[in-house]
Amino acid sequence: MMRALWSAASGMMAQELNVDTIANNLANVNTTGFKRQRVEFQDLMYETVRAAGSAAAEGVEIPTGIQVGLGSRTAATRKLFAQGTFQETGNPLDMVIEGNGFFQVLMPSGEVAYTRAGAFKLDSEGNVVTADGFPLEPPLVVPADAAAISVGSDGTVMATTAGSSEPQSIGQIQLARFANPAGLSNLGHSLLGATAASGEAVTGAPGIDGLGSISQGMLEMSNVRVVEEMVNMITAQRAYEANSQAIRIADQMLEIANNTRR
């Protein structure tokens, strides 16, 4: 069987995953805090027909060998953490991180998840939570009679209650950073989970130890660039077509060989 059939088939499968990733990027072009992914490829094994440096005759070495590649595969889908654009909302519970870091969210399982989506809300008990009801970690509770809330760049949260002119501190938002954020696992719902590859979370107040600062009344939008993704999609489609053409040609060559008569 011709190697070209399997090599081209591996290329088609790799481009299918490439298009799947691009489609997910485009689907989340308006998702708050979303970070685009990029597919990375690598070549597969090589069959050595003749090794470089082997002897052709006594005292004569072959300067270059013959190796035939056996296709490609997807090596990784890398998440790119470039800063997205900021959109002003005026909502006091909307926050962005200017720089490095993630908001911490407590999951029902007791584990902590991480997110760049700062569209927070209040639940019936005054807890600051995500759209899915997951509370911030450490917890932040806004008094029921709070008339105004302000969040400082260092994460300090102040609330002005009814009948009081002086704001009172009700807590501080803590951020987390990772040695290898690309190693974080996607959990869905705009949440990320720590893995062995990402390393342990390093937490602290915003603005120190390499953590970004917080801005209130704004949201970080997706860092997907539609034009770039459309170009990537066209490139992936053409690569898929080229591989399918290679399969067609290999099949035609096999047909010619099968129909050869003496």
Could you describe the 3D structure shown?
The protein has two helices and 21 strands. The protein is of the alpha+beta class and 262 residues long. It has two domains: 3-81 and 224-258, no CATH class; 86-220, no CATH class. The strands form nine sheets. Strands 10-9-16-19 form a four-stranded antiparallel sheet, with no helix packed on it. Strands 13-14-15 form a three-stranded antiparallel sheet, with no helix packed on it. Helix 1 packs antiparallel against helix 2. The relative contact order is 0.20.
Strand content: 25-35%
Helix content: 10-25%
Strand order of the largest sheet: 10-9-16-19
**Using only CA atoms, what is the Rg?**
27 Å
Tell me, briefly, the overall form.
elongated
Low-pLDDT segments: none
Order of helices and strands: HEEEEEEEEEEEEEEEEEEEEEH
Helix-and-strand structural type: alpha+beta
Largest β-sheet summary: 4 strands, antiparallel
Integer count of domains: 2
Number of strands: 21
Number of helices: 2
Oligomerization state: single chain
State the separation between the terminal residues, measured CA to CA.
21 Å
Mean pLDDT: 93
